[in-house]
């Protein structure tokens, strides 16, 4: 038994407490204290349900030089995540039931965060032939996506939505029009022109979201089951408006935004540092402001990391050649806790919802709240500030665009079904 005494509670329902939280048999046994072998003083700390990341690149199989399950899932629990969806753009892509089973088995043996692998929507993520949604679901796939690649063929996406919905699987899309994006390495506009870099226009995202929503309408009209579309790493104001309109019209669509699009803008590229190179690219301040509004008004359902580790050698190439991607599993919550809640008064309960019930809804999982009988997959957070130091990351990607930022809200204890998987109590 574990007792966390005098701790503030926060979940999607609100902030309350302090309470004395008794944990045993993998559950919250009481919020009123009790006898326990291990007692933690929770004074000044707050307890939340464990986070779920809808979007992380853990690079297994085939790209273990960048990340592997052991390092990625350790980074996850250090970031307060008890559950994580891994992206299938590996080598080879995760597009068979065997590959999904192998990932789940390996992750279970590690006993860190629980892995919910995403599988590819099309074979080899080539956009030509659908994968076997039913068999993938049976093997434990959580959603289908060709993330990392764009779905250029609208007909394949429509067929994919129809097939996935028959098995209750969401389809998630990396919404960028490849023919508009072309070789863009940063947001298209005056700054890219000034720096002499090829731009990726915001319209590439908006155009693709508009198309995908029409594809969804078509799939809905043709299907007795309910096709369901999730839009990944939304980065533009116009893209957000389109999702908002669709939600108002009652379409089954959800969307996520990343810590980098919520805290950084294209201005960060001025020094030509590839650490800030990501797809979709960092946008203008008006886009960032729109995303922040979207977090509050419910247009956005989840914060998802898009944790995309590459080797330092790759990220030290010049801006044109370096790969796209920012690692963020270990800093995502502290970043938003500090930059949004601390500096802008963003409600803490809503922020926690965007890391818990919001992403859980996308996967069709029930909400998780801090009450007697609830599963003890939890994170204890400390408001104490310290600077971001990538040398301390468990991820193989030991660099960060946020190096030196002073953040609070660090996970000091993470529990999965009552088991301690991360501990950094002082
Ligand atoms: O920045 C990105 N990195 N965007 C993607 O879509 C893919 C990802 C990766 O796999 O590195």
UniProtKB/TrEMBL annotation:
<feature type="binding site">
    <location>
        <begin position="57"/>
        <end position="59"/>
    </location>
    <ligand>
        <name>substrate</name>
    </ligand>
</feature>
<dbReference type="GO" id="GO:0044205">
    <property type="term" value="P:'de novo' UMP biosynthetic process"/>
</dbReference>
<feature type="binding site">
    <location>
        <position position="174"/>
    </location>
    <ligand>
        <name>Zn(2+) 2</name>
    </ligand>
</feature>
<feature type="binding site">
    <location>
        <position position="57"/>
    </location>
    <ligand>
        <name>Zn(2+) 1</name>
    </ligand>
</feature>
<feature type="binding site">
    <location>
        <position position="233"/>
    </location>
    <ligand>
        <name>Zn(2+) 2</name>
    </ligand>
</feature>
<dbReference type="InterPro" id="IPR011059">
    <property type="entry name" value="Metal-dep_hydrolase_composite"/>
</dbReference>
<comment type="pathway">
    <text>Pyrimidine metabolism; UMP biosynthesis via de novo pathway; (S)-dihydroorotate from bicarbonate: step 3/3.</text>
</comment>
<feature type="binding site">
    <location>
        <position position="55"/>
    </location>
    <ligand>
        <name>Zn(2+) 1</name>
    </ligand>
</feature>
<keyword id="KW-0479">Metal-binding</keyword>
<feature type="binding site">
    <location>
        <begin position="324"/>
        <end position="325"/>
    </location>
    <ligand>
        <name>substrate</name>
    </ligand>
</feature>
<feature type="binding site">
    <location>
        <position position="89"/>
    </location>
    <ligand>
        <name>substrate</name>
    </ligand>
</feature>
<feature type="binding site">
    <location>
        <position position="310"/>
    </location>
    <ligand>
        <name>substrate</name>
    </ligand>
</feature>
<feature type="binding site">
    <location>
        <position position="147"/>
    </location>
    <ligand>
        <name>Zn(2+) 1</name>
    </ligand>
</feature>
<dbReference type="GO" id="GO:0004151">
    <property type="term" value="F:dihydroorotase activity"/>
</dbReference>
<dbReference type="GO" id="GO:0006145">
    <property type="term" value="P:purine nucleobase catabolic process"/>
</dbReference>
<comment type="function">
    <text>Catalyzes the reversible cyclization of carbamoyl aspartate to dihydroorotate.</text>
</comment>
<dbReference type="InterPro" id="IPR032466">
    <property type="entry name" value="Metal_Hydrolase"/>
</dbReference>
<feature type="binding site">
    <location>
        <position position="147"/>
    </location>
    <ligand>
        <name>Zn(2+) 2</name>
    </ligand>
</feature>
<keyword id="KW-0862">Zinc</keyword>
<dbReference type="GO" id="GO:0005737">
    <property type="term" value="C:cytoplasm"/>
</dbReference>
<feature type="domain" description="Dihydroorotase catalytic">
    <location>
        <begin position="46"/>
        <end position="213"/>
    </location>
</feature>
<keyword id="KW-0665">Pyrimidine biosynthesis</keyword>
<comment type="similarity">
    <text>Belongs to the metallo-dependent hydrolases superfamily. DHOase family. Class I DHOase subfamily.</text>
</comment>
<protein>
    <recommendedName>
        <fullName>Dihydroorotase</fullName>
        <ecNumber>3.5.2.3</ecNumber>
    </recommendedName>
</protein>
<feature type="binding site">
    <location>
        <position position="306"/>
    </location>
    <ligand>
        <name>Zn(2+) 1</name>
    </ligand>
</feature>
<dbReference type="InterPro" id="IPR002195">
    <property type="entry name" value="Dihydroorotase_CS"/>
</dbReference>
<feature type="active site">
    <location>
        <position position="306"/>
    </location>
</feature>
<keyword id="KW-0378">Hydrolase</keyword>
<dbReference type="GO" id="GO:0008270">
    <property type="term" value="F:zinc ion binding"/>
</dbReference>
<dbReference type="GO" id="GO:0004038">
    <property type="term" value="F:allantoinase activity"/>
</dbReference>
<dbReference type="Pfam" id="PF12890">
    <property type="entry name" value="DHOase"/>
</dbReference>
<dbReference type="InterPro" id="IPR050138">
    <property type="entry name" value="DHOase/Allantoinase_Hydrolase"/>
</dbReference>
<dbReference type="InterPro" id="IPR004722">
    <property type="entry name" value="DHOase"/>
</dbReference>
<dbReference type="InterPro" id="IPR024403">
    <property type="entry name" value="DHOase_cat"/>
</dbReference>
């Amino acid at each position: 038994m574990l007792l966390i005494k005098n701790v503030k509670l926060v979940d999607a329902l609100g902030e309350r407490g302090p309470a004395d939280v008794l944990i045993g048999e993998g559950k919250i046994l009481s919020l009123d204290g009790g006898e326990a072998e291990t007692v933690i003083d929770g004074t000044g700390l707050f307890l939340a349900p464990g986070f779920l990341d809808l979007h992380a690149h853990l690079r297994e199989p085939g790209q273990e030089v960048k990340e592997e399950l052991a390092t990625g899932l350790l980074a996850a629990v250090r970031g307060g995540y008890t559950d994580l969806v891994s992206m299938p753009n590996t080598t080879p892509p995760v597009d068979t039931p065997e590959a999904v089973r192998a990932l789940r088995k390996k992750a279970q043996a590690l006993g860190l965060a629980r892995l919910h692998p995403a599988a590819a929507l099309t074979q080899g993520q080539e956009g030509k032939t659908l994968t076997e949604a039913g068999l993938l679901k049976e093997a434990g796939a959580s959603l289908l996506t060709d993330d990392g690649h764009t779905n250029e063929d609208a007909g394949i996406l429509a067929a994919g939505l129809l097939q996935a919905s028959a098995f209750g699987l969401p389809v998630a899309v990396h919404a960028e029009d490849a023919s508009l994006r072309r070789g863009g390495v940063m947001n298209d506009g005056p700054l890219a022109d000034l720096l002499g870099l090829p731009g990726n226009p915001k319209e590439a995202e908006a155009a693709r979201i508009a198309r995908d929503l029409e594809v969804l309408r078509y799939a809905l009209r043709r299907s007795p089951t309910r096709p369901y579309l999730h839009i990944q790493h939304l980065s533009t104001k116009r893209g957000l408006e389109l999702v908002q309109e669709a939600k108002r019209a009652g379409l089954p669509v959800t969307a996520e935004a990343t810590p980098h699009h919520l805290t950084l803008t294209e201005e960060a590229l001025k020094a030509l540092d590839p650490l800030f190179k990501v797809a979709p690219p960092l946008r203008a301040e008006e886009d960032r402001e729109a995303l922040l509004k979207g977090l509050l008004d419910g247009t956005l359902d989840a914060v998802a990391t898009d944790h995309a580790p590459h080797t330092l050698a790759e990220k030290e190439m010049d801006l044109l050649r370096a790969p796209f991607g920012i690692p963020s599993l270990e800093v995502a919550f502290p970043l938003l806790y500090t930059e949004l809640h601390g500096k802008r008064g963003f409600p803490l309960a809503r922020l926690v919802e965007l890391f818990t019930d919001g992403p859980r809804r996308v996967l069709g999982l029930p909400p998780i709240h801090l009450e007697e009988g609830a599963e003890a997959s939890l994170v204890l957070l400390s408001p104490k500030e310290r600077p971001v130091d990538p040398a301390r990351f468990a991820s193989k990607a030991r660099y960060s665009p946020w190096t030196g930022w002073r953040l609070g809200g660090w996970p000091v204890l993470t529990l999965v079904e009552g088991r301690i998987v991360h501990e950094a109590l002082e």
